[in-house]
Design a protein that fits this description.
Number of helices: 4
CATH topology: Aminopeptidase
Distance between the termini: 18 Å
Number of strands: 8
Order of helices and strands: EEHHEEEHEHEE
Oligomer: single chain
Strand content: 25-35%
Helix content: 25-40%
Number of domains: 1
Radius of gyration: 16 Å
Shape: globular
CATH architecture: 3-Layer(aba) Sandwich
Length: 185
């Protein structure tokens, strides 16, 4: 077993249409704006239940940058190359290095939906993870969050099952979670 060293991950990824960057202070304003524009579609994300200030987004970006620098998580803000606009945020968290697995999360700006940008970004991050030595990337979504379930399926992740009353939702109620996964090819 070779432990996964996230500190070796690049801080920037590129696709044909996107630039993915680890969070920086200058992302805060675009991040806050994207979150505000995407409500109420963020009802399944604890921090997406109410509008957030640029100061909040700045602290969030700083916390993300610290966790990336410490090798605890992978986090990327996604920007469209053509205009520099914020597309979304993708992270890989709950990493079990010894088991070579992690959980992917994603939040996109609804104003840029429908063109496959977040899908392109998520696939780039999944490819990066497999290149770093991950064997398995999981996605877990509230069973009521049909958009997230559809997105996971669109990424090609296999639906592995439903974990009944697995965790508390943003309102404190136990909810069912659907588990998806991709295995390294």
């Amino acid at each position: 077993m070779i432990p996964i060293d996230l500190k070796t991950a690049p801080n920037t990824l590129h696709t044909d249409r996107l630039r993915l960057e680890t969070p920086r202070a200058e992302h805060a304003e675009a991040f806050a704006d994207g979150v505000a524009a995407s409500m109420p579609g963020l009802a399944y994300v604890a921090w997406g239940l109410r509008p957030r200030s640029v100061e909040w987004a700045l602290r969030f970006c700083e916390d993300d940058a610290r966790s990336v620098a410490a090798g605890e998580d992978l986090v990327f803000h996604v920007f469209e190359v053509s205009d520099g606009g914020w597309v979304g945020r993708i992270d890989v968290h709950t990493i079990a290095s010894a088991d070579a697995r992690g959980e992917i999360g994603y939040v996109g700006d609804v104003r840029r939906a429908g063109r496959g940008l977040m899908r392109e970004a998520a696939l780039a991050v999944i490819d990066l993870c497999f290149g770093l030595g991950f064997e398995r990337i999981e996605a877990m979504s509230d069973a009521r969050n049909t958009r997230a379930l559809h997105f996971a399926e669109g990424l090609g992740l296999a639906r592995e099952g439903v974990l009944r009353r697995h965790e508390r939702d943003c309102h404190g109620n136990l909810c069912d979670m659907v588990l998806y996964a991709a295995l390294r090819p």
